[in-house]
Amino acid sequence: MRALKGISSPRSRLLFLILLFLPFGWKAGAQDWVRTGTNLGAARIRLAAADFNPAAGDAQTPALKTTFDTTLYNDLNNAGIFDMVSKSMAPPVTPASPQQMNLAQWAAAPASAAMVAFGSLAATGGRLAVYGYLFDAKNPESPQILGKQYNEAASQDNARLIAHRFADEIITRLGGGISGIAETHIYYVAKRGGNKEIWQMDYDGQGQHAITHLGTLSLSPRVSPDNDRIAFASLERQGWAIRMFSLVLGRPVSFPSMVGNTLSPAWSSNGAKIAFSASRNGDPEIFTADANGANVKQITTFKGPDVSPTWNPKTSSQIAWCSGRTGLPQIYMMDSDGTSVQRMTDGGYATSPSWSPNGQFLAFAWNRKYGPGAPGGQDIYIMDIASKRWTQLTHDEGRQDFPSWSPDGRHIVFQREKGGGSEIWTMLADGTEQHRLTQGGDSMPNWSWK
Amino acid sequence: MRTLHHRHFASLIAVATLTFAAGCHKKAVPPPPPPPPEATSPAPTATISVTPDSINPGGGAVLAWKTTDATEISIDGIGTVNAYGTQNVTPADSTTYHLVARGPGGSTDATARLTVTAAAAPPSTGENMDENVFEQNVKPAFFDYDSYEIRPDAQTVLAQDASYLAAHPTLKVVIGGYCDDRGSAEYNLALGENRANAAKQALVNGGIAPDRIRTVSYGKEKQFCTQADEACWQQNRRAGFSLDR
Q1: Which residues of B120-148 are buried (b: 16+ CB within 10 A; e: fewer)?
Q2: Residue B135, CB half-sphere, CA atoms under 13 Å: how many?
Q3: How many CB pairs under 8 A join A and B?
């Protein structure tokens, strides 16, 4: 590591890259603006997560400890800001408390950790008690950064939950104050038989379960910013209607039906408004309404399909959407009163925009060489809105659609269709570290706001 | 090498055609037999039809004609026309369209009458329509890729659909808009809405009251055919009709 230090200083690395990839120099540049804008940064902190000490727990403890250790390591590894010390390189010890911690052992090669997470876990009398610590290996005088205590009913779900909470504490502390996403959820559409229902899972694909049981086609789930309600479009006898499901009450709640088919709801980040597509006069246009369905306003009047609105979460005053007004669908942007319309994509087939939490980027699905008979090539892209510079995040892996940003802006969840199936995948917002969360007929993922 | 290539291509087409026929239950249409050789010039033939043959004031209909062995074809009130074709007509009063076809073998003529009704037909009550009969008479309109424009062939079909619905004034219909499975599911739901509505407009222009027609989009959620080829995609790009009970 140390020997490589010379080459990894920014200036010599740049020189190295220019010499090595002279014809592709622009590409390195493109990756840099993505990494900076998505809070992924350039340098990753070398972090070790020790297996927790089983303390003096009862017979339940080993199984819960396995779940906890695995979940904590994966959460930190998934965060996108750490260079994790692999378990095989970590010292074979399980310090239970600060007194048992020998930092030099962790700072030395091969672990070479800059930070160490460790602690103890014990199940006794049906309760699960966890003590978690984060130590700075470079500051042996005053190493403690975090000390946390958790106590919940002893269960597998709670072992995962506590690991998620502790991981999010570490990520918030070491990731520039941006909250981690280990406690977030993903809502999606699951095809079961001939029907499609709205489902929920943890951010890492665990705990998949059905939310709706409507026995029809339900699509486009969008969770409210307070995580209390899911808006979605459901096929009813009179056509497509926007419906609301209360996650608090565990049942559908009323939302007024509108004239014509209504599709693709989207929440403003303050939770006060929803935007959606409605075909009141037979031509789908973008509308806005208050969250209770009152105060309906039509804000576009373009011939052809207008659908898939997404609000700028930073301001709640702009909407990007997908319009077929000139033929193949393109991404457009406007103020939320319908003024200042601006086209963002310059051709191809561009759909399903999702606005990044910091307001800087649009993620969307784009097939740049789309045409009758053109093969594959529908990939996820992100575009820097101010410069309209874009970069392609997925390559040669079937057909991708419906990107949705994680609340920390570091991750994107999306739908991948490959070989007849449809799956939910996640990746870092620079396109790296793609991994599958579900399989079967799952589609249209939507990441919760917190 | 070239022959080999050719043969390979031909068998591909054969396989594609077979797959399509099996997958979509589409009957194979044999190519028309070549005309028998004639020593002398044959006499021209001509047919002309108008659908629907009865419209309400302000409505429209489609005139379709076909001739053979004619060099000069004209329709009274329209002028010289091609050997075959279609044209939208919107006469204010009942009209008889008279086509004359002349060729080296002589001349022939054909007529079609379009009645413009003074008032809407009296509603018959309690019509109990069989789904199969309905489907045989009210056929779907097909669309081009990523388009909701009514093509000439769809115009003809929709004119026939309108005429059937005009003759059965108690029927109410649902028009479903469908898309092939390429592209995005949300966008296709919106596009399907445009397709269903384009078909509705064609029926309304053909004299059918808008309150007899409901539209719903199925986007790419319901497919008639699941092969990944153009023949199949075409089957799926449609506005289809069902009875609204």
Answers
A1: eeeeeeeeeeeeeebeebbbbbbbebbbb
A2: 5
A3: 98
Average pLDDT, chain A: 91
Question: Residue A372 and residue B148: Cβ atoms within 8 Å?
Answer: no
What is the 8-class DSSP label of residue B108?
Answer: E
A275 within 8 A of A268, measured Cβ to Cβ = yes
Mutate: best of A195, A306, A308, partner B, most B CBs <10 A: A308
Q: Are both B239 and B135 inside the same structural domain?
A: yes
Nearest to B216 among A261, A277, A308 (CB): A261
Question: Do B51 and B103 fall into the same domain?
Answer: yes
Which pLDDT tens digit goes with each residue over A191-200?
A: 988 899 999 9
How many CA atoms lie within 13 Å of A189's alpha carbon, on the beta-carbon side? 29
ipTM of the complex: 0.90
Cis before residue A309, ω within 30 degrees of 0?
A: no
CA distance A54 to chain B (A): 49
Q: What is the sign of the dihedral through the CA atoms of A29, A30, A32 and A33?
A: positive
**Token couple for A29:** 């540049």
Residue B96: give the domain boundaries: 45-116
What distance in Å separates residue A371's CA from the closest CA in chain B?
9
CA distance linking residue A148 with residue A90, whole number of Å: 22
Q: Could you give the CA distance from residue A71 to residue A256 in angstroms, rounded to a whole number?
A: 42
Residue of chain A whose Cα is closest to the Cα of B188: A305
Sorted by where each starts, the structural domains of chain A and their CATH numbers stand as 5-37 (no CATH), 45-174 (3.40.50.10070), 185-447 (2.120.10.30)
Going by their DSSP bridges, the two strands B213-219 and B173-178 should be labelled as parallel
Which residues in chain A are contacts of B146 at CB distance < 8 A? 324, 327-328, 349
d(CA A284, CA A221): 19
A371-409 pLDDT, tens digit each: 666 665 899 999 999 999 999 999 989 899 999 999 999
Is residue A306 pLDDT above 80, yes or no? yes
β strands within B172-237, DSSP E: 173-178, 213-219
Establish if B76 belongs to a structural domain: yes
